[in-house]
Amino acid sequence: MDYKFVPSVCPYCGTGCGVLFEVIDGKLVGTLPNKTHPVNEGKLCIKGWNMHEFVNSFMRLKQPLVKTFGRFMKTEWDEAIKITADRFKEIIKKHGPDSIGVLVSAKITNEENYLAQKFARAVIGTNNVDHCARL
Ligand code: SF4
User: Fold this and answer.
1) Which value, in Å, is the radius of gyration of the alpha carbons in the chain?
2) Which residue of 15, 23, 25, 81 has the fewest CB atoms within a 10 Å radius of its CB?
3) Positive or negative, the Cα torsion across 82, 85, 88, 89?
4) What does pTM read for this prediction?
5) Which of 44, 50, 108 to probe ligand 1 with, by most ligand atoms within 8 A of CB?
6) What percent of the residues of the chain are helix, what percent strand, and what percent coil, each to the nearest 5?
7) 61-109: pLDDT as tens digits
8) What is the pLDDT of residue 110?
9) Is the pLDDT score of 135 beyond 60?
């Protein structure tokens, strides 16, 4: 059995707590707080303690889904992006750019959040941008 601890950072919020992932035979099985990490000094909130669960969850989305006749169907990224772009154009033409809002997430990086707000303002044409930290 190959058992090891892999140091990492919790992806759930911007605090950036240090963790040690427990990995057995290449599979992530647990999360422990990193006692020597300067941010959390061995403490984690409940989300951090359980973060390994989403990695192996059967509910995790691994490819885009499109709702057709009330049912979610798997599709490819190119097709999902085309459908989304077409719908955005349709909505903007009918109701204006401020009919669309963009919600971003603490689970993505600052750079990705920056790109999302840039997309909202420069591509969609709306200032309706918000963040899950404020919800
Ligand atoms: S353990 Fe909790 S407080 Fe720390 S980064 Fe993760 S979500 Fe944020």
Assistant:
1) 19
2) 25
3) negative
4) 0.69
5) 44
6) 35, 25, 40
7) 999 999 999 999 999 999 999 999 999 999 999 999 999 999 998 778 8
8) 83
9) no
Report the pLDDT averaged over residues 11-28: 92
> How far away, in angstroms, is 43 Cα from ligand 1 center?
9
Q: Are the CB atoms for 6 and 30 separated by under 8 Å? A: no
CATH 2.20.25.90 fits 3-55, yes or no: yes
Domain segments of the chain as ranges: 3-55, 61-95, 97-135
C-beta of 15 in contact with ligand 1 (< 6 A):
yes
Question: What SS3 state is found at 53?
Answer: helix
Closest CA to 18 of 3, 4, 29, 31: 31
| Residue (of 75, 126, 109) closest to 117 by Cα position | 126
